[in-house]
Amino acid sequence: MADAIDQDRTVADLGEFGLIGRINEVVTATAPGTDVLVGPGDDAAVLRVRKGHVVVSTDVMVEGRHFRRDWAEAVDVGHRAAAQNLSDINAMGGRAQWLTVGLAAPADLPAQWALDFTRGFAEECATVGAGLVGGDISRADQVMISVTVLGACIVSPVLRTGAVPGDVLALCGRQGWAAGGLAVLGRGFRSPRVLVEAYRRPEPPYDAGPGAAEAGATAMIDVSDGLLAEARHLAEGSGVTIDVETAAFDVPEPLVAVGQALGADPMQFILGGGEDHSLLATFPGGVALPEGWVRIGTVGARGELPVTVDGGAYEGPTGWTHF
Amino acid sequence: MADAIDQDRTVADLGEFGLIGRINEVVTATAPGTDVLVGPGDDAAVLRVRKGHVVVSTDVMVEGRHFRRDWAEAVDVGHRAAAQNLSDINAMGGRAQWLTVGLAAPADLPAQWALDFTRGFAEECATVGAGLVGGDISRADQVMISVTVLGACIVSPVLRTGAVPGDVLALCGRQGWAAGGLAVLGRGFRSPRVLVEAYRRPEPPYDAGPGAAEAGATAMIDVSDGLLAEARHLAEGSGVTIDVETAAFDVPEPLVAVGQALGADPMQFILGGGEDHSLLATFPGGVALPEGWVRIGTVGARGELPVTVDGGAYEGPTGWTHF
Hints:
2 copies of one chain form a homodimer.
Chain A: H1 11-14, H2 16-30, E1 36-38, E2 45-48, E3 53-62, H3 74-90, E4 94-105, H4 111-126, E5 131-139, E6 144-153, E7 168-172, H5 177-186, H6 193-200, H7 208-214, E8 219-222, H8 227-238, E9 240-244, H9 253-262, H10 266-272, E10 279-283, E11 293-301, E12 307-309
Parallel strand pairs in A: 4-5, 9-12
Antiparallel strand pairs in A: 1-2, 3-6, 4-6, 7-10, 7-11, 8-10, 9-11
Helix pairs in contact in A: 2-4, 3-4, 5-6, 5-9, 5-10
Binding site for Mg(2+) 3 (chains A, B): 43, 88, 222
Pathway (chains A, B): Cofactor biosynthesis; thiamine diphosphate biosynthesis; thiamine diphosphate from thiamine phosphate: step 1/1
Catalytic activity (chains A, B): thiamine phosphate + ATP = thiamine diphosphate + ADP
């Protein structure tokens, strides 16, 4: 394998330029990207833009906050870091094309970790035809990963601000699975494996964003911090009230099992969980939802609360904040 | 002032969304950028691209490695973080247009620090007409800043790979000043003030990159890690040898003074120093150098050493590496 190196070597052993060279080898072998006029290795990358615009987003992941090296393999952290950023372009109704990574790491980080991370990252990018085109590395006390993704929309971007009363609220993709997996890991368990895997490697519905845009979605967001928290962003951005109907959800069996094992209502994972990077969108009332989308609520005129559940206030946790 | 807040409040006191809201206020008041179709606040920004391409680069700065909060005010760290990234676009012969910032910080970071940083960052961007269009914040043990900059080239990008024997090597901008300032700060001094200021707020020659591209520069790089280290990148990228002539430099008086005070050869600051973000480029032998550029050496056929100084090997430090 191109990226297998001595397990004892650290990033400090390889040195800055040695590490960058190995990372570039992994990227070139996995997902070099298309329309790359100048790739990694110069002061900047140069990318051909065919649509007259770029869509750009930046996300930060910090060791101990967003991932733990003992809870996920480096290759999984790579998949997740890419997925969370690719999902931001998806949520605009766009397709991701290029990514850059700023990586800060302790000197004693195994070099293999950095290469496995890169491989997972590049593999996830390759699933949508995107490529890693640049980045920077530095020493730090803990691993920090800052990813910037660039892409383009097929039709007009779908913002958070366009929902109007009478729209329906719809969801696409798994929801609550990653939160269930995280809860399991937090208690020291490793099963149900399907949930732990969902946390380690989310599977965002990458085709659903452009599809929703073409179908006329009025507002859209990806669920990274929690379903109700994201619904609130849509409601406040659009100046409406959103009601989520719990009866619309089929609670999947693994979440039922985890709820029983941990003594928790499995709906909490669905309503408060993030990191599956499902998509939440509003569509005009008369529109047939595209394949994969499920109606989960309604949009009404602005009221006392931005978000209600089954018509009333919700008392449980609605999502995650970073400070 | 829009960004003055209670000095005792921390980023944790403001909370993630409170802090983002205040940061957006500072950005909007300072440097919102142009051709921004969708600005901060959605899943991604949308930017109008007029040249059919984008130039993109990412740089990481870590507290304790790239800056110390007791050595520079937050506003200066902001200027420097922006300058180092704007300079990467300059080094391609391009002009920067948009930036995103990934910021990780301890919960007890004063919120005012984050806002002052943002103000300095946005002010530096405004000097070239660029704007901050997005980003992300997270909690971490130390301050980490990852910046991505996007821009466009006026003519073809100038790479590191185009130097040929017979070219002349030229420099534009202050060189060695920031290294002198850093040496002073490292010894616990605060003067010569002009050098300390040069370290705190580099002044890259932002017009010189596009000017060099139009004048036919064959290769170019910005000096962020050290003059000889960057010369080596050019030489290795182009498959040539570069000779730097020390007689070409006028050693500025403040560097002479620091050299005497610290018992160091001031040429060491010039040859090994980075972070002024001067530009180093090669031009065909017959070309009249654009204003501000100074001839400092020659390009020859590939030899035993990629870089020589006055025709021979150089024994001093040539630059900085991160691991």
